[in-house]
Each structure stands twice: as structure tokens, then as C-alpha cells.
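Incident review: delayed structure delivery

Summary: a single-chain prediction request sat in the queue longer than the usual turnaround. Root cause was a stuck worker, restarted by the on-call engineer. No data loss occurred. The affected request and its eventual output are reproduced below so the record is complete for anyone auditing the incident later.

Affected input:
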Amino acid sequence: MPTTNLFDQPIGDALPAWTARALPAPSPLVGRFCRLEPLDAARHADDLFAAYSQAPDGRDWTYMPVGPFATLADYQAHATQAAVAPGFLHYAVIDLRTGRAVGTLALMRMDPANGVIEVGFVAFSPLLKRTPISTEAQFLLMQHAFDSLGYRRFEWKCDSLNAPSRVAARRLGFQFEGIFRQAVVYKARNRDTAWFSILDTEWPLLRSAFTQWLAADNFDAQGQQRQSLDSFRSLSV
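Output delivered after worker restart:
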């Protein structure tokens, strides 16, 4: 039964103990496959530009508000600006096997008063895609937001036409919430935005699935998964 007020109107659940959460600090987050470091152009830009240059064309940047970058100097300028952009905490994803940066992602649209935060600006190079690192990098940010900072809602948004991003959000456990029509103009074109989220009440099941999927015994000698992330979520229900 919904909660009602003295006027017999339905109202949201009471949160008498809720307090505003802290903003995430620019500190490293370490996993088994990767380390997330606050983006630093001087330390990371060379590696990142080299990693992005492994792609045969610029299609990975189609749905990004920036890029592709023709020269190292162009990418260095972007990374320098991104590292200090207000309201964003950009991370470089470091492959622990090589010590090199192979992609970036960011925490953004931070709303500590309401406990809401978004992951975005996900730019994964060919050296990172379809590896355990790509999943662990996302898990580390979720874990930080929910377990360390106590946020209530973790968001993912993308161009509604970006099919790979929508598939990735579903695979990671985000729930689709709908389309905001004509929400953004970028690269001189319209964007209808697809919204996804994970709530704190959903996180324990997802955390268990991520932990099992990332375990050493879930990968064979060639580094291929034995069971999918979705299968672990099904087992945890």
C-alpha cells in the first residue's frame, strides 16, 4: 500500500535518516584487472592517443561530444581540459598487465544532495573493448558510488540511436527508463537521450554478480569468460 499524507494523497517513502552525500574525491580505484586514475594529460595522454589510434576509423567517436582526434596535440588539449572540467571526474583506465592507459570514463552530473551520479564520457580503445577490464572499470565506479559514498541512484545516458551503448547498459544491469526527446544538440545535430539507471536497492544483487563474474575461476587460460554476467545475475535472484 502506498504511503499517504493527512490529505489522503499518496506520497513517496519517508527517508528520515537521509543526508547529502560527499562528492567523489580524485583518488585511484583499484581492481584485479585495472586501476582507475584521475585523468592527467601529462601522464596519460600519450598512452591514450596511441591506444585510440589502434582503431581502423573514427566510428567510436560518432556519439561522443568530442573527437575523433587527428593528432596527439589535439588529444592532449582535450585531455588537459577534461581533467579540470567543473562537475566532471574523468578517469584513465590503466591495464594492470602493461601499466598503460587504454581508455577513459567519467563520473558526472553529480547531485550529492539527492544521491544521484552518472557515468559518462566512456571512451574505450580497441585495447580495452571486449576484455574483463571494460566490465571491471564500470564495476569500480558503481562500487565507489554505492558502497563508499552511499549514493541512491547511478545513471547511464546515451544517444537513443547508439545501439552498442544501449546494449552495454543492459548487460551491466541498468534498467531502461525511457527517451528524452530533443534533449541535446551536439556536433550540430539532435540527440534524443536514452535514460538508464541502477538503484541502491538493486545494487546488492548486481554487486554479487559482478564479483562472481570477475573472479579468477570464471576465466579460462585464454582469458575467455566461462559464464556470462547475466547468468550470474540470474543465479543471484
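Verification: The longest strand covers residues 100-111.
Action items: add queue-age alerting; document worker restart procedure.
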